Protein: SET domain-containing protein
Organism: Brachypodium distachyon
Amino acid sequence: MAPPNISPEKFDLAIRTMNGLGISRETVSPVLNNLLELYDYNWEHIEADNFLVLAEAIFDGPDPEIDQEGHRRQSHERKNLDSSHCNKKLKVGQQSQKPTSKMHRNDTAGKLSSRSPCEMKPTRNQLQSSSSRLLINKPNMESNVVEDTPVDENSSALLLRGQDIQTSESPLAVIYPQAEDSSHHRGHKDARGISGVQPAADQNYKGVSGSHERNTIDACSSKALVSSPGLSSNFEVVLSDTGMGKLSFTYNSSLANRPDLHMPDMASVCKEMEARCLRKYKILDSNFFFMNILEDTCQCIVDLSSESSGPREEGIVQIVPTMDFLSGPSVPKMLQSNQASSLYMPPNNLMMPGGVCSSSAVARVGQSSSSNMQVVKYQPTIGANGPAHDVSDITKGEECVSIPIVNEFGNGILPSQFHYIPHNITYQNAYVNLSLARVGDENCCSDCFGDCLARAFPCACAADTGGVFVYTRDGLLTEGFLDSCLSSNATFQCKVCPLERAKTKVNPDPCKGHLTRKFIKECWSKCGCNRHCGNRVVQRGITHHLEVFLTSGKKGWGLRTAEKLPPGAFVCEYAGEILTNTELYDRNKKIGKEKHTYPLYLDADWLTEGLLVDDHALCLDATFYGNVARFINHRCYDANLITIPVEIETPDHHYYHVAFFTTKQIEPFEELTWDYGIEFDDVNHPIKAFKCCCGSKFCKDKKRISRSKSRALGY
Ligand SMILES: C[S@@+](CC[C@H](N)C(=O)[O-])C[C@H]1O[C@@H](n2cnc3c(N)ncnc32)[C@H](O)[C@@H]1O
């Protein structure tokens, strides 16, 4: 009961606030009474900072009697400390001058010293420096415990959250070993397999949340890690050649002595973290891998640690050894631990716990324990982490129509990751002059209105195509134009083309020649017509129903139409990053010959470009940023699509669009194909040609044909 001479409301509030910390009324009452007496029933000091003085007085007591419920709540709270709490703890640790486990050690809870109230009231700094037992946090409205407590939400007052398990040692990260029930991980992994299917992931999340509550890991940071050499309780993520950067996950030293201590394997930690991220941060992306976060963190440190303002060196960080459970294209290439020493030289002078070790020791670490991770420099691969696919619409709403991903094999496989872009975007050095000033009167029809195709006479925009529009009123290519495109397959041997000129430098191959191309010239924004003008087809984007589908053969993914298409119909343009040829060579060198890449030279007018050099010649690369065209597979000669260069916003043909049109009528669910113009016997090409499975009777891949003939003959 509150003494009669004090406000029962205030007394109750103090009790409730302490209750919120798991401290019983029986414990609080005598301490509060003593405090009131000490402070002459002046509530101001006691109420300050959400009864900080009261809580401190209780915790400074010899044996604060915390009731069973309080214990339960406290341990529950401890297990649920999230990283934001830990960050606050970090601040506390940084401010700390000399950690002591208690304030006023000689005082007792029930009998406070006779110092004056001013002397008695600990300053916030004092309190913080005493925080090795007290975790101090702002009111956390997410916690049930604190929610019960009336707290001024606007107040930045600190709230004591009960006794903390922290010791005065403050490891960079503390991982409490848990006996894991792995069953829920399996569920999570399964959910990951069906990318983009949100309900499944969500279901799984609900299913495992209870067990996660019990297994929550405290991960607090406060100051530099003091790790014991030889102690096997470390995860190491070492960065950079010099070993200057390092992520280290180490057991709290008090736990390191526990007999049941064991280092969980990294795979389990990653799985658990993925489950937690799903639960806590609602990361439903089925392609989310915790290892990628670690890798990104390392990459970020590497990036920020360099003063160089040069272009970002991607993929500098690689984590070894392999994490078998992490498979799929989004995962950075993980090396098998036994490959680590042979394929990738570990960095010299790698910092290890307790000092610098030799590279052979590092190699041993890489090979020996799945708990240790090294990060070594390697040949960059670009775009290791990519966005997840939306299986219902790979375009993510970027096009006027949805284009689903269809896998009829039920194996859950999805296309490799890339960023969907409906239009080309410059990568870095490519120069595309889009200025209005460059579009002269002869290159636009500013005096037109409405639909140019409705005019009695073709406008200026038809001049390039012989004074006739190439489109019909139905939005199809005219038969005449389509035929002329199909028949203009003569190649020209260019003596001055960028490929030829560059052959002694990066690319040693002589130019094999290019097709002479007919251009489409569309009306554009500088014209007077409207967006629905019949001479604007490609720029309006995809209109037909298409599907990205997994082919039954060895071609991987392909593109097909879901509707019947007439000849001359626009399907899509080839969208990707606009690169200079030099950038493409560099990129391909890094990617390696074996990987799928999606480049396309913008070579349709190289003949008239004069002394075009590789730094200026352009190409499109849809490997990392692209649209559905990147899925169109090759077919030798009798493909049902043709690419046609399209001039829209730039009057010269240095940069242009590449559009796919149907060459014939195409039935619903027929695969869309185009002839890449590949020379399958060209062994010198920087990109190794695939084994063609186009199925055409005109197939150019002679090796494949002889192989299949041999098979048919039983050799
Ligand atoms: C532009 S991508 C086409 C999309 C690719 N199939 C995919 O799964 O992402 C080109 C790659 O597809 C494969 N490909 C395309 N046409 C093929 C064909 N006729 N036979 C075998 N593989 C083919 C080759 O691996 C080639 O490098």
Notes: Confidence is low (pLDDT under 50) at residues 63-232, 239-244, 309-384. Residues 415, 554-558, 596, 598, 630-631, 633-634, 690, 692-694 surround S-adenosylmethionine (CB under 6 Å). The chain has 19 helices and 24 strands.
